[in-house]
Amino acid sequence: MVTRWIDLRSDTVTKPTEAMRTAMAKAEVDDDVLTFDPTGLRLEEEMIRITGKEAALFVPSGTMGNLISVLTHCDVRGSEVILGHNSHIHIYENGGISTIGGVHPRTVINNKDGTMDINLIEAAIRDPAFEICYPTTKLICLENSHCNAGGRCISVEYIDKVGELAKKHGLKLHIDGARIFNASTALGVPVDRLVQAADSVSICLSKGLGAPVGSMIVGSKSFIAKAKILRKTLGGGMRQIGVLCAAALVALQDNVGKLEDDHKKAKTLAEGLDSINGLRVDVASVETNIVYLDILESSNMTAPKLCKALERHGILVMEDKPYRVRLVLHHQISTTDVHFTLSCIQQAVDAASDQNAASP
After folding, report:
1. Whole-angstrom Cα distance, residue 25 to residue 210?
2. Are the C-beta atoms of residues 197 and 223 closer than 8 Å to each other?
3. What is the per-residue pLDDT across 184-206, written as a single tens digit (0 to 9) for each?
């Protein structure tokens, strides 16, 4: 019988700490739609300080944060956004920018590190002289760290170059910074410097930071003023947001400093997995808290079989493809949990190998 669960499906699965629950219970609140919520305002001021932007806004989710940001920049239906073919906005956000906003996505191939070639971005920008046929390019989107690239980080030098390109063509730059604190920690670059070239950034509070709910978007005062109206339109005006923002303030205070340890444990996990026969991990690509595990077909193991075997030991991981599994570290995963997970995976692979050997 499983008595304790080790949840490695995502860094979104963390539970609120006692400090967060206490802060939520004591939070000073008001109506964030009619006027402002005092605790929400404190969180916005803290994010302004951290990011170096003029204004900030709390939103219920990262998906809504990205949607609001894209729609604020692309305020005319039929506008076009350039973004990576493997980006979170393009793959995992229900096509909201097109179905809700009438914004056309123009994809550029993501490299293994999550970047897009600068020359390909520029080539994707539409020629305004042919607007009789083309949509109008308004925005470029980057993602940092890049989820589908295994949590790899985009350098500040690269972001600056994309920012320069955007300005050259009169475009805006949005960064999906769901895990920007992970990127900042891994790169050793302060968040404000990392997002300096961006016109807007969305930042998740409920991933590596461990808050229970919410994201922030930051940008200029005029951008946030428009974004606040869109938030209400989309149903994101949640009145007494201070109950949630209080937990986020605790997360910023207590958990940012734990991200480096999350990254170290992810590297330990990756190295251990790569040493198991029949498994492969690109250890060099593990820069933050995400590990992608590839299963060799010769191992007689598949992702669904491995997930089921681990679940019997109280370990939850996420199947990505038939022979690929994703594991994500967060502050509620201990070093002991990592070693126990490695032991259970070794047992599962050995059992599959023995079964294969026993087959006639």
Report:
1. 17
2. no
3. 999 999 999 999 999 999 999 99
Q: Using an 8 Å Cβ cutoff, are 326 and 291 in contact?
A: yes
Query: For the chain, what is the radius of gyration of the CA atoms?
Result: 22
Please state, in angstroms and rounded to a whole number, the distance separating the CA atoms of residues 59 and 188.
Answer: 27
Cα torsion 179, 306, 310, 258 to 10°: value is: -20
Contact status, residue 215 vs residue 236, Cβ threshold 8 Å: no
Enter the pTM of the model: 0.96
Phi, psi of 216 (to 5 degrees): -125, 145
Spatial contact of 328 and 289, defined as CB atoms under 8 Å apart: yes
* Beta-bridge mates of residue 16: none
Q: How far apart are CA 87 and CA 195, in angstroms?
A: 18
Q: What's the order of all strands across the beta sheet hosting 318-321?
A: 279-280, 290-295, 324-328, 318-321
User: At how many degrees (to 10) do helices 259-274 and 335-358 cross?
Assistant: 20
DSSP 146: B
Tokens matching residue 99? 């179905």
Tokens of 101: 């906003």
pLDDT digits (tens, 9 = 90+) for 232-282: 999 999 999 999 999 999 999 999 999 999 999 999 999 999 999 999 999
Which tokens hold the place of 79? 């506008």
Neighbour tally for 332: CB within 10 Å: 17
Q: How far apart are CA 275 and CA 289, in angstroms?
A: 19
A 10 A CB-CB count for 225 gives 13
